[in-house]
Each structure stands twice: as structure tokens, then as C-alpha cells.
Amino acid sequence: MRQSHMLIPTLKENPADAEIKSHQLLVRAGYIRQIASGIYSFLPIGRRVLSKVENIVREEMEKIGAHEMAMPALEPSELWKETGRWTTFGSELMRLNDRHNREFALGATHEEVITSLVRHEVKSYKQLPLTVFQIQNKFRDEARPRFGLLRGREFLMKDAYSFNESYESLDETYDKMFEAYSNVFRRCGLNFRAVIADSGAMGGKDTHEFMVLSEVGEDVIAYSDTSRYAANIEMAPVVATYEKSQATPQALEKIETPGQKTMKDVAEFLGHDLKEGIKSILFQVDEKFVLALTRGDHEVNDVKLKNLYDADMVELASEEDTKRLLGSGFGSLGPIGVPEEVEVVADHAVEAMVNVSCGANEEGWHFKNATPERDFEVKSYADLRFIEEGDPSPDGEGIIKFARGIEVGHVFKLGEFYSERMNATFLNDQGKAKTMIMGSYGIGVSRTLAAIVEQYHDERGITWPKNIAPYQVHLLSLNPKKDEQKELADQIYDTLLDAGIEVLYDDRKERAGVKFADSDLFGVPVRITVGKRAGEGVVEVKERATGDQNELETSEVLEYIKNWYKA
Q1: pLDDT value for 329
Q2: Which PROSITE patterns match (predicted)?
Q3: Which end of the chain is less enclosed by CB atoms within 10 A, N or C?
Q4: DSSP letters of 518-532?
């Protein structure tokens, strides 16, 4: 493609609102442009890269027997209400009404739509297992769209859905999909980890996230320093054990603590270590209120609390509800004297504590020498805290370390979560009606593109992997006004195109410095420069990532390019 005919607007400076490299470089190099907050257009060169990622996804899906289809982005609310997700999915679901005041959602995901379709069309075990997928724009009303393509309100996603007659069959499909996802991200050249994850609003139990390792990732991965164990920090169980304190319980004492709001403030005021205090946080868990207790130096993991109650929704109680139920604001909460309508649960570490401080449920007051079970009752002890670096690995091998990751894929064993609610059944080999067993599998295609840039760039621009780059060769004619340069560049362009090589031909009447700078920004793996030695039939070939360069005769160029891409 001749660059003079293309829409590739480049920028010398980073956009003011671009915080991370992928956002900065994709905008500067003319791959994307923002239309509104969290909404982007893919310009021609960006669309080409997106297509490369899509094609890899399609190939790997088809290898495991998944069939592509297309579903509508506009989804009627009735389907979401069948599963209960019209209310539980939350404010990220974009909702709208048509002219007849009927409620719809813009598709954030398609479990309801595909389940509705399959329940009408699949009736027999002979039609199972079935796996279908689509690549389609999705919509989520992010409260704070940021980081360019990594957190947008409209994004390109591959979503797949499997229907099986048994959990054993689902396991087989899940394993195939897991391997297909691994192949996708390997082919994209990514350094990634598959980690144990939480299913969130998707429902179901077993699930893995595919995380691209990056310092700009919004997720924290907990991994073993000696084994293959890896999990999202929300899901990593704590296997640390706590020895019961042998201290003699002292008399409970109420102490005035004016202005001391945080655990650190209270610990310093009372002159003890953070570990010697109890942190109390009030949550609303579905329709009930739960006071969750951890040791003062630990943090409550609300995902573990949600799973403990098998709840649909967990959120911090409002300040109004907190004061109504416990008589105090957030800074002085504690488990002593809690009303019956509030359940008290605690992390395992709390069970071992004696003579510790806690809030007195009165503004500016705390207790000293509180001891569980003597001074307050706990309904149950459970693993309720976030794992920390240095904790034992849950698999018994090594200790936990942290890394940051960008989520690019997620696979779920949904089980009967949707099919039971939507009455998706089939007749088994004995003629009995059985509920279908489902799986759901997503890849953020546009997120994957951004994640690649996060791992493949330098100070001059993007350094695309070979099979993802928008073009295989960037051909530069430094001065197309000179006949020998234009003629040789045209000749090389035609030769490469005839051989099936993808070429971006910079035939613009621009200064050489501008062309070199743009070429570095674009990140095409190989650059061919037709310059001052054009009259001799000699050109310069340079590898973008390594900077290695050679001077070649025109007759050698095609073979060089073919061999370089075979390597």
C-alpha cells in the first residue's frame, strides 16, 4: 500500500491524557483515535493489526471444533431477567429503551442470548457437545475508562460458548479451550501466565484468567517462586497457620482515642504493633449485613467473603447503615456489642489473638485487651484475607511473590448457572430431559493488541512481533523526486507484492528524518531504504527490533525477506 494514499496521521508528542506506552504509541503512530472517553476508532493501519490477532484467534478456535457465528449487540432485557443478571450485573451494563419503552442492553457478553438460541434449537444429546464463537464489539459503561484500549467502554472481544451433556464432557472442552488460548497468546508473542480467578458476575465456579505480565497491569498475580502455581490475588487461598497466643487474658478496658481513625493511627496511639489490633469492616452481603474481622495488618478480601456466603453481591455498607446498625462511623467499628442482625465472621488469624485492640462502636473510643469468644462471638472463622508476599504457596511449594498483569482472556466452567435458569435442556440417550452443562470463554482482542505493544516497544516506537505487524516490510523512498530512487523503489515494491509480501511503501514527499521517525513509530519488522546508492542498485535493509542492518543488491532483497520471515 502506498503511504501517500493512506490515513496514517502521526504525532511527535504524546497525547496529554495517555498514561501508558500502548496508549501513547498507538495514538502517536496513527493506529487509533479517540472519539469519546473509552471509545476509539481503529484507523487503517490499526485495523490491519486487529485483523491479524482476529485471524490467529479464528484459526485456534476452528482447530478445536468451535464454529463462528454472529449474535446481535442489542439484547432484550427479558433474557437478562431470566438469569437475574439484569440487576446483579451492575452499573456497567449499558441499558436503553426503544420507542415503545421496551428495555434493552448493549451486549456486554452473550450468555443469555446464546442460551436462548440453543434451548430452542438443540434437543438431543446427539447434537452435543457444541461450541460456537463470535468476534464482536462489546459495551460496558466503565466508571473510569483509562489506559487507552485496556479499559474502554466499547471493545472488540471473542466470546465462545460450549454446551455439553456432562461435567466430564465440559472438562474436556475446557481443557481444549485452555490450550487453544495458550496457543493464541504464544502466537502473539506474549509473556503470559494462566492464573486461577474469580468468576464474578459471570457465574459458575472453575475459571482461569490469562494474564500478560506488565507493570501497567491492573491485576495482581500471586505466584510461587518455585512452582507453576499462579492465581489472581483475589483467589489465592492463604494456607498460613497461626499459633494461639499463650498470653493471659487481661481485663477489657475502654480507652478514649480522639481523632484516631485508621488502624495505624490507633496502633501508634495505644503503643502496640498493627498485628495486635482487630480490623472491623461492615459489608452488605446480598440482603444481610456482615462484620468481617481481620488482623490489623491484613486486608479483607471481599471476593472470599462473597464466596463464603455464595452471594450474588458484596459491597461496603453505607455510612448511614453503619451508624444505624453499629452506632459509629467507620473509624471506630468493632465486634463487641454487635446487634443480632449483624453476623460476625473472622479470618483465621483472629482466632489466635488475645489482648488486642478493637473499635468500641463509639466515635473516638476503642477497647484494649479484647479476646475473641470471651468478649465477642464469631459465627465462623474462614480464610478472609488477601494473600501477601512471603506467605507459603497454596500448593505447598515455595513462597508467594507478586507480579502485575493485564487480563487478556478468561475461561469459565459455567455448569448449569444459565441453562437451569433458562430451562435449556436436552433428551439423553434414555429419553430423559437433562440440563445442559455450559462453558464460556472470552478473549479481549483489542486488549490483546494493546498488551502486545506494552511488551514490544522501545524509546522510538512499537516493535511488533513478525506475525502481528500491520505489514511485513516498510519500504522507504528517501527522495522520490529523484528518478533512480523512485524507479528502484517502484521495482522493489512490485516484486515484493507479486511474491505475496505485505508492503507499506512510503512514497511521500517528506524529509528523510520524518520518514525514519514514522517508520520507527509504526514498528514494521523490516525496513528497506532506497537512498543515495539507488543508482548502483543497492539498498539498506534494517531490522526494527534489533537495529541490525545490511546493504543488499536489489536482486538479493526478495530472498532475504523470505528467509528472514522463515527464521
Answers
A1: 87
A2: AA_TRNA_LIGASE_II
A3: C
A4: HHHHHT-SEEEEE-T
